[in-house]
Fold:
Amino acid sequence: MSTPDSNSHVFEAPAAKADVSQQIRDISEVPAIEVITTAAVHLMSAAAVKLGLAAEDNAEELKDLDEARKLITALAGLVTSAAPEIGSQHAGPLRDGLRSLQLAFREESIIPDAPGKGPGEKYTGAVN
Structure:
């Protein structure tokens, strides 16, 4: 014999389906440029935290250059591939933010990468 709680998912299913349908409708109304720039900003923010640039008191504890490298490389791929689609008005600030992160990474690294071998530089070219 089952308890009411064990069958509660049966009653939630239509509501959950309605939530998913609403989310799909909501995302369908968002322009691609907004989705792209939002993703880029999230990558930038995460990379800044992993570089130890957070405004928090424990910013140094949050530093993880291996993780920062991955995030910066992903950001570089996104910005480089999306730039023709989103136009220079939107791509310019993203490129500037990316370059700042690449330079910050270079400053934080104990062992510097060779020119053109830093995070994301296979997509952007050498940053100095």
